[in-house]
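Researcher: I'd like a candidate sequence for this fold, 485 residues long. If you have to choose between options at a position, lean toward the conservative one.
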């Protein structure tokens, strides 16, 4: 297929979108700034207007040229994309290498009735080159392209009577309940945005003239103390409200359905995203629980899909919700071989020792500092860290576990963020067994299951060394029995 002759162009309206966002022009700005400085333009309104008009025209020209030079074509065997302003590139991706498709509509795209189609193509490249991006097609064309590249056939397949085949029936797997937004303040990712906003607010206050800044060190200490308390309360409220709003913007209207052989997730308030994953490429799932989320029995569920880029976002099956709901949804895809088997007591001793050793070092240094410099607080800090290390070590041990089943296996670890991975036996492409000096003395080993999905490997930490062979054979097959030697 020749994309120059048979390919499709995106909508001309995308030129306006890219002009406003300076999508193509941004790469030329670093080269334009020295040229503008060399001309010796002076200040004033005329210069500002000239720069604005010049940059806008540059953005318009590059956006129009980029649109004219971009073509895409989807056929029965591959997807072809041709692009490039100066140097021309043509990329062909076989359909059997496509791992997933995401259709997203940012606010400006929605204004013009356009969408972006991201095709995840694990074709042996790395980074962003694993994505094929078709930016600026109509909603109908985006749906057609998404269906075509995932089913590897045309969207209108004739039925036996010559009529188009009906669309596959939908089966709802999950729907986001807005009450689950109350979990957001317990998730670190949702707290990042309000924390950044608070930092920006403090920088703004620091730049204000002195007469507009609150006086916290005035003669009335009680008034200053009240102001500090009010600022603290306001800070906490901002974090809570900001995290809830951030979670709502990202996950609003989340719905997961099964449509034929695919899982389709839609979500987003400002930017509406439509992500589709082939069920045949799903090899398992992960259940993630932060420390705060465990207090309220909440969790996040993600699918492990072979070759899927940006799996943390695209593979989400339940962005936030009750743990029972997430477990039920995960079991519909891959059975969870519970109950988990606890790791040996030597693993518990090892977790505790690793947790308290830092405190013991500080306490030892504090003893010397107390005797020589009188710094008793260093010793107190070391003792506190040592005592605190015991429950932390017990918590880390309690998080360890593994289990095997007829067609799947599971491993779990983590304390601040506890993660349980459930994987199909066929997902394993290799095993790696590691033993440190101290693990050998304790009769323990860490077993890493190498898989072609998710982050590439999932570990059973501090497993009994004499159980490694049995676990690997039960979790993947007799070919892993070489560990018996």
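Model: Candidate sequence:
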């Amino acid at each position: 297929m020749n994309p120059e002759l048979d390919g499709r162009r995106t909508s001309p309206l995308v030129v306006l979108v890219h002009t406003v966002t300076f999508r193509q022009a941004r790469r030329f700005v670093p080269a334009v700034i020295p040229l503008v400085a060399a001309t010796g333009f002076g200040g004033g309104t005329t210069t500002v207007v000239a720069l604005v008009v010049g940059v806008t025209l540059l953005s318009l020209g590059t956006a129009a040229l980029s649109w004219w030079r971009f073509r895409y074509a989807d056929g029965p065997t591959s997807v072809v994309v041709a692009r490039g302003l100066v140097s021309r590139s043509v990329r062909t991706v076989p359909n059997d290498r496509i791992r997933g498709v995401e259709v997203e509509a940012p606010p400006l795209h929605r204004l013009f009735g356009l969408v972006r189609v991201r095709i995840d193509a694990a074709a042996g490249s790395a980074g962003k080159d694993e994505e094929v991006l078709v930016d600026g097609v109509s909603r109908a064309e985006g749906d057609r392209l998404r269906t075509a590249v995932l089913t590897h056939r045309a969207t209108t397949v004739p039925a036996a009577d010559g009529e188009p085949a009906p669309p596959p029936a939908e089966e709802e797997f999950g729907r986001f309940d807005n009450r689950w937004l109350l979990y957001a303040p317990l998730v670190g990712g949702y707290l990042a945005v309000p924390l950044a906003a608070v930092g920006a607010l403090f920088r703004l206050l620091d730049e204000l003239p002195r007469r507009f800044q609150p006086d916290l060190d005035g003669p009335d200490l009680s008034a200053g103390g009240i102001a500090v308390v009010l600022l603290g309360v306001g800070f906490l409220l901002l974090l809570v409200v900001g995290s809830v709003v951030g979670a709502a913007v990202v996950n609003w209207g989340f719905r997961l359905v099964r449509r034929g052989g695919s899982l389709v997730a839609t979500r987003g308030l400002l930017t509406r995203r439509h992500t589709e994953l082939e069920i045949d490429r799903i090899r398992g799932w992960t259940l993630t629980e932060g420390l705060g989320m465990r207090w309220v029995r909440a969790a996040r569920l993600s699918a492990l899909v072979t070759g899927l880029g940006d799996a943390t976002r695209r593979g989400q099956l339940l962005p936030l919700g009750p743990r029972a709901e997430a477990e039920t949804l995960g079991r519909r895809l891959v059975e969870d071989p519970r109950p988990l088997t606890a790791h040996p007591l030597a693993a518990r001793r090892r977790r505790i020792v690793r947790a308290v050793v830092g405190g013991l070092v500080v306490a030892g240094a504090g003893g010397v500092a107390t005797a020589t410099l009188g710094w008793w607080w260093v010793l107190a800090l070391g003792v506190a860290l040592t005592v605190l290390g015991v429950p932390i070590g017990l918590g880390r041990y309690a998080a360890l576990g593994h289990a095997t089943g007829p067609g799947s296996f599971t491993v779990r670890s983590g304390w601040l963020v506890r993660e349980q991975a459930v994987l199909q036996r066929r997902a394993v492409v290799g095993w790696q067994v590691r033993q440190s000096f101290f693990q050998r003395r304790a009769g323990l080993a860490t077993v890493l299951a190498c898989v072609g999905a998710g982050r590439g490997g999932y570990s059973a930490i501090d497993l009994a060394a004499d159980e490694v062979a049995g676990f690997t054979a039960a979790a993947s097959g007799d070919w892993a029995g070489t560990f018996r030697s």
